[in-house]
Amino acid sequence: MHKHPLRGLYAITDEQLMAECFLFKAEQALLGGARLIQYRDKSDDPQKRLSQASALKKLCEQYNALLIINDDIALARTVQADGVHLGKDDVSFGHARQQLGPETLIGVSCYNQLSTALEAEKAGADYVAFGAFFTSPTKPKAQAASLELLKSARQQLQVPICAIGGITTVNAQTLVEQGADMTAIITDLFSSDDIQATASQFSQLFS
Question: Which residue of 52, 57, 127, 171 lies most exposed, with the fewest beta carbons within 10 A?
Answer without folding.
Answer: 171
